[in-house]
Specification:
Largest interface: A-B, 37 and 36 residues
Strand order of the largest sheet of chain A: 3-2-1-4-5
Order of helices and strands of chain B: EHEEHEHEEEHHEEEEEHHH
Oligomer: heterodimer
Order of helices and strands of chain A: EHEEHEEH
CATH topology of the largest domain in chain B: Mannitol-specific EII, Chain A
Number of helices of chain A: 3
Structural class of chain A: alpha/beta
Largest sheet of chain A: 5 strands, mixed
Radius of gyration of chain A: 12 Å
Shape of chain B: globular
Helix content of chain B: 25-40%
Structural class of chain B: alpha+beta
Distance between the termini of chain B: 41 Å
CATH class of chain A: Alpha Beta
Radius of gyration of chain B: 20 Å
């Protein structure tokens, strides 16, 4: 299963990158392929291409603010999660995502 | 159960000979030990030779040793270990009363000032504690407290900057902050942060027009707080001097993060 994710937070210097880091580690643990775009104070990093989005089974948006270019995901299954849930237990979040996709 | 966390900066490499001595001593002590090499993200609960060597302790590494012992057994064990560690590095043992809390430039990430604010005890709300934190920043760093405080409160309203039980990480980019700053505030009685209680507050402030380097250092610090080892070391730290040393380390780029994802590709486990 391939997952693409976008993380964003109000200030863009901490939780955006903490959530990305937590999702990366959780995905490695669950043996999921993941690509994460961060939208923070350094701008958009590791941007998701049309191909990435097309290949992915699901799009995870972990953000406490509106993200940029959300229209890219209009025809893909999108799961929104809070930053707090990712920071508290990213593995549980990705497990729920897996169940959602497999259901 | 008695617990003591000894933090030291290695001045020597952990040689096979010293590891063997430590293995021999600890085998005879009625203690449980846990080693962390915070710099290299290595840890072990075992004290056999190979586990100790796998810590890969080199000069300059920040390391922590947790000693757990039954009361009454602690003195000899602790004394012996501290004696042995003296051959490996410099134990950070400055008590809070003697620690220089002033804000100093961080080595290697020189744009950042890092300091601490004297611990607060008693009952505090999150908002008053954030105000207290801003009051403790040097005047050359923060020129207007009120708008910065309001900004912090607004940020907390969107979602609490709670990281894990015990630690909060409030942060702000503000035109009223004139130098990148990291500040530590301990509140041993605990303060409710919205998702749980915290005993340590790590504040990061950046100027609104902060440099890329300063932002990268703040991001490196934030990322490292998702890694088990630096976080454990920070939460276990017994004194402000130790917490200060850990934050200085974490403000260096790429400590405690997962390998960089190759650009344009999916990261996947093999």
């Amino acid at each position: 299963m391939k997952v693409v994710a976008v993380t964003a937070c109000p200030t863009g210097i901490a939780h955006t990158y903490m959530a990305a880091e937590a999702l990366k580690k959780a995905a490695l643990q669950l043996k999921l392929a993941i690509k994460i775009e961060t939208q923070g104070a350094l701008g958009i990093d590791n941007p998701l291409s049309d191909r990435d989005i097309a290949q992915a089974s699901v799009v995870v948006i972990a953000a406490d603010v509106a993200i940029e270019h959300e229209e890219r995901f209009a025809h893909r299954p999108v799961i929104r999660v809070s930053m707090q849930s990712v920071l508290t237990d990213a593995t549980a979040v990705l497990r729920q995502v897996q169940h959602h996709v497999q259901a | 159960m008695y617990r003591r966390d000894i933090t030291f900066i290695a001045t020597h490499r952990l040689s096979t000979a010293l590891a063997r001595q430590l293995e021999r001593i600890t085998a005879q002590l009625p203690v449980v030990l846990e080693w962390l090499n915070v710099t290299r993200q290595q840890g072990t609960r075992s004290c056999n030779l190979w586990s100790l060597l796998s810590l890969d302790i080199r000069p300059g590494d920040l390391c922590q040793l947790r000693v757990s012992a039954w009361r009454g057994k602690r003195s000899l064990a602790e004394w012996l270990l501290v004696q042995k560690l003296a051959g490996l590095g410099q134990v950070i043992d400055t008590p809070d009363a003697e620690f220089d809390h002033s804000f100093q430039p961080v080595t290697g990430a020189s744009e950042f000032l890092c300091g601490s604010i004297a611990s607060v005890t008693g009952s505090w709300s999150k908002s008053t504690l954030l105000g207290r934190l801003l009051d403790g920043l040097p005047a050359e760093v923060l020129s207007a407290r009120e708008p910065c405080w309001q900004q912090l409160l607004a940020r907390e309203k969107i979602s609490p900057t709670w990281v894990c039980p015990g630690l909060a990480f409030p942060h702000v980019c503000s035109p009223h902050i004139h130098s990148p700053v990291a500040a530590l505030l301990a509140c041993p009685d605990g303060v409710e942060w919205g998702c749980g209680s915290v005993r340590l507050v790590l504040f990061v402030g950046l100027p609104a027009d902060g440099s890329r380097r300063a932002i990268q250092a703040a991001i490196a610090l934030a990322q490292s707080l998702t890694a088990e080892m630096p976080l454990a070391a920070l939460l276990r730290a017994e004194t402000m001097a130790v917490r200060h040393a850990i934050i200085q380390l974490l403000l260096q780029p790429r400590i405690g993060t997962t390998p960089e994802t190759p650009r344009g590709s999916f990261l996947s486990a093999v």
